[in-house]
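Reminder to self: tokens first, then the designed residues, so the page reads top to bottom the way the pipeline ran.
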């Protein structure tokens, strides 16, 4: 059984969904998302450093 995927339909559906969602989100939501992403990245980085330091201490 051969499956043929029409990539233009998939691309159009995904693009349309992204643009529809983007048009319905307020600018404050974008700002909040960016701030939360920055905080999450900083916390993730800090936890990685702490775990690396802890692993080095416990390995000795």
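Designed residues (60 positions):
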């Amino acid at each position: 059984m051969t499956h043929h995927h029409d990539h233009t339909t998939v691309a159009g559906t995904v693009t349309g969904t992204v643009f529809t969602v983007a048009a319905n989100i307020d600018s404050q939501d974008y700002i909040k998302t960016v701030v939360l992403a920055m905080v999450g990245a900083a916390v993730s980085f800090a936890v990685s450093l702490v775990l690396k330091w802890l692993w080095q201490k416990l390995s000795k």
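The two ends are 58 Å apart (CA to CA).
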